[in-house]
Amino acid sequence: MKHRTLVLGLATLILAVSPVAAQQGGRGGPPTQSPASRVPPKTETPQSYPAEQIQAGESRFIAQCGFCHGRDAQGGETGPDLTRSLLVAGDVRGDKLKPLILAGRPAAGMPAFSLPAADIDAIVAFIHDAKAKAESEKGNRRSVDVSDLQTGNAEAGKQYFNGAGGCSKCHAVSGSFASVGARYQGLALMQRMLYPRNRGPRATPDLLPATIVTIANGQTISGRLTYRDEFTITIVDANEWSHSFPVATVKKIEGDDPLREHTEQLGKYTDKEMHDVFAYLQSLK
User: How far apart are CA 270 and CA 100, in angstroms?
Assistant: First the structure.
């Protein structure tokens, strides 16, 4: 489980930096500096937080913010790297971050969040911890060796795909799927395989699955499903308020979710099975 989380976190980091932008300036212009090579702004007021609060903030951040800002706050496909944010650098225990989280920036695509004060405090703690770690990275660069993913056996992956994994019930190896390994490589393919719901720009609300969540006290919350993994489910209600719940504490989840089996599969994969299936998908050219 730890390795799987690392893989997807690294995927969002890679997607956050364009190799083309890092190598060239305007048309015919000189090379420009990669964003990853620039020194991040220093935290103006150093601050520390309890480990338990940071850990709680990580799960809340991933559920509420990770689809835009990356699972570790270092940038996603649609949201900026918060560890390089001037606002975060100038924040003191949430004096700038909390109002932003509560109000959002609708014009920039960031919704307002209705969360308990303790959750917001935890998110703030996690963001500052992520920034402190980013500042300590040698060379201020983030990188991943994609060869780390090449540990699977394609034939074993094919057997799992067609057998115990049940993948072939929905995915016939024909048409565009027959060349998925040519169209997606490395981390992009792994992310698409494990978290197809949480890749790319967010869909418009009316295209998201209608979902009803029943929590422990019997209360039901209706909305559109925006995020779900093996740990967390997040829906946005009709008033555009975001509600996030640990899956383990939810009594019932109802709705027509076309990606439900992908989510359920996350809790079934062993590390070997995951990499075997990945190797098989890479072989589909």
Answer: 39
Are the beta carbons of 69 and 79 closer than 8 angstroms? yes
Span 225-250, average pLDDT: 82
| CA distance to 57, 163, 170, 213, 228, per residue, from 244 (Å) | 13, 34, 28, 10, 9
**For residue range 159-170, what is the model confidence (pLDDT) as tens digits?**
999 999 999 988
- Cβ–Cβ contacts within 10 Å for residue 233, how many? 21
Q: What angle do CA 245, 233, 168 make, to 5 degrees?
A: 150
Round to whole Å and give the CA distance between 72 and 126. 9
What are 85-136's pLDDT values in tens digits? Answer: 999 999 999 999 999 998 888 777 788 888 889 999 999 999 999 999 888 7
pLDDT by residue (tens digit) across 139-161? Answer: 554 544 566 677 889 999 999 99
CA-wise closest residue to 242 among 64, 60, 59 = 64
> In whole angstroms, how far apart are CA 47 and each of 44, 120, 127, 282?
9, 16, 11, 44
The CATH number of domain 210-257 is 3.40.50.2300: no
- What pLDDT, in 10s, does the model give residues 258-285? 788 887 887 788 888 988 999 999 999 9
Question: 135: buried, middle or exposed (CB in 10 Å: 19+, 13-18, 0-12)?
Answer: middle
CATH number of 2-140: 1.10.760.10
Residue boundaries of the structural domains of the chain: 2-140, 146-199+265-283, 210-257
- Inter-residue contact 231 to 265 (CB < 8 Å): no
